[in-house]
User: Fold this.
Amino acid sequence: MPAPPAPPAPDPAPAEAPAAAPAETPAATPAVTPAPVYVAPAVTTTPEPAVPVAAYYMIQSGDSLYKIARSLNTTVANLCLWNNITNPNRIRAGSVLVYYSAGNEPVATATATTPGSYTVKRGDSLYKIARLFNTTVNHLATVNGIADPNRIRVNQLLRY
Assistant:
């Protein structure tokens, strides 16, 4: 009888294991969640309203409010308002005028009106306003549709 087959000889070096097929799902790897990030709300600061800073001008001989207003980059009407001048044609050398630079006017006295307009204040009359803007009462009444020149209201907007 023939001899039984010899058992296979063991490999002297272990053979490399066959490459394992990739797993369908990864092993239970803990999910990494990013740490919460705190985003501070935007800080909006409202600038404090600027306190108007007054400057002063001493009237010289030969000055007029028009000339002064042009040199100070303002209007005759503003100079009259800021200095309580009722007749812009009557100023005296040596008197001191208060004025404010552009954007630095006091809100209470420099009302934001359209050019060529005036807001009536307590104690005003059409006569006083007409003198302020070198015009006539009749012109102011006509332009503003005022039937009775003795009846104007505080805060009424007048064109001149």
Observations:
- Helices lie at 65-71, 76-83, 126-132, 137-143.
